[in-house]
């Protein structure tokens, strides 16, 4: 009988970080023209489709005539080869900071499950860095226009993600972190 209160206390304690987390929210404004171009991945939560990536991870976004966004993700694998994945993103109507992305052929784009959430959670006013995730907190990327990031900014973005309930224990650092800001 004395075990029940202790078990209940443990369950409440374990659940408290989830309960206390802010909701995952996308930015209110996203100018796709300014967001387009090359981004360097600084860090990410492990995901199966990036297992082979060991460095030089980039994402390139370009505007298409149909209003969608071309996505080209690339990285170097353990053998030094460049691995490329081509996809497309579409804006979510009424939610500027929310996109959906897919990496399957166009003829499969009608299948709802091929589209994944891509939310811009924090964004530099000058579009020099971004924090990207999704509402289930399974995916998270810290991106920069430069192939490195200063430590203060990196820690600030990690703190923002933790505030939204992301578990950063398995976060993988994929690019250099500087101890001083860039000039």
Automatic annotation (TrEMBL):
Claim: Membrane is one of the keywords in the record: yes
Principal localisation: membrane
Signal peptide feature range: 1-20
Residues of the Lipocalin/cytosolic fatty-acid binding domain: 30-174
Pfam family, any one: Lipocalin_2
Entries under PANTHER family matching the protein: APOLIPOPROTEIN D (PTHR10612:SF34)
Stated family: Belongs to the calycin superfamily. Lipocalin family.
Subunit structure: Homodimer.
Job description of the protein: Involved in the storage or transport of lipids necessary for membrane maintenance under stressful conditions. Displays a binding preference for lysophospholipids.
Protein name: Outer membrane lipoprotein Blc
Lineage, highest ranks first: Bacteria, Pseudomonadati, Pseudomonadota, Gammaproteobacteria, Lysobacterales
């Amino acid at each position: 009988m004395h075990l029940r209160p202790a078990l209940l206390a443990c369950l409440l304690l374990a659940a408290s970080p989830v309960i206390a987390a802010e909701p995952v929210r996308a930015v209110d404004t996203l100018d796709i023209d300014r967001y387009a171009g090359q981004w360097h991945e600084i860090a990410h939560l492990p995901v199966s489709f990036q297992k082979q990536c060991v460095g030089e991870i980039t994402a390139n976004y370009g505007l298409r005539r149909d209003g969608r966004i071309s996505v080209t993700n690339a990285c170097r694998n353990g053998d030094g080869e460049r691995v490329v994945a081509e996809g497309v993103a579409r804006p979510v109507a009424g939610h500027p900071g929310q996109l959906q992305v897919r990496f399957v052929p166009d003829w499969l784009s009608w299948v709802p499950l091929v589209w994944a959430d891509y939310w811009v959670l924090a964004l530099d006013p000058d579009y020099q860095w971004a924090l990207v995730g999704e509402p289930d907190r399974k995916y998270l990327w810290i991106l920069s226009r430069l192939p490195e990031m200063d430590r203060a900014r990196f820690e600030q973005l990690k703190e923002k993600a933790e505030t939204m309930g992301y578990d950063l224990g398995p976060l993988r650092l994929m690019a250099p972190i500087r101890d001083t800001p860039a000039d």
